[in-house]
Input
Amino acid sequence: MSKRAQHPARNAVVALAAAGMGASMVFGGGAAVAADSKTAPALGPAAAVAAQADAQAAQAKAAQVAAAKKAAAAKAAAAKAVAAKKAAAANAAKKAALAKKAAAKKAASWVKPVNGYTLTASFNQGGAMWSHKHSGQDFAVPVGTPVKAAHSGVVVKAGPNGGGDGPAYGNAVVIKHANGRYSQYAHLSKVNVAIGETVKTGETIARSGNTGNSSGPHLHFEIRTTPNYGSALNPAKFLRAEGVVI
Output
């Protein structure tokens, strides 16, 4: 018989202890494993560095996207501003062209009574040449220069003695216009129209001369409110308002 068999009590204690340890190992180990399964495993140093790098890369990408959006918005705004500026310039150019066209059209409705002139005595000028202040604008031109109707209308005076206004005007023509104004042409060498005749803008109505009270060859031109002497307006100012600068 062995020594273990000779001590049954001690053997029982050892057996119980062994059994307890086994239970502890079995149950305790299981509990530990179960507890560990509920907790995420801690990252190692390499994994932590990789995770941080990924986070930084994501932030950098997000910043890039935001910057790209901002740049695109700025580019779109700049393009819009350029387009608006071009549109404004085009609109201004269009308005200028329309104004120029309107001015040209308006100017075409009234013309200068002669070409190749030198301006001499002006409206309302005083001097020994006139008993009153000068009633028109003088255009110094050679005798025989074509005299044109400044605007379309009907001839109401034509002939010597100023067409009825007096010998100081020499040969003269007066035209009535649709706007209620009258134009007068004096000191003519030849009259080409008759009373009652309709004339067009720019039509030759006479030839310049040196008749009547004249100090030299020229055309005396007036704008009047009536067909008669004494109702004259400033002809240069009137023509300028109609788009004609003399």
User: Anything to note?
Assistant: The mean pLDDT is 83. The beta strands are 118-119, 137-140, 146-148, 153-159, 171-176, 182-191, 198-199, 204-208, 219-224, 232-233. The radius of gyration is 56 Å.
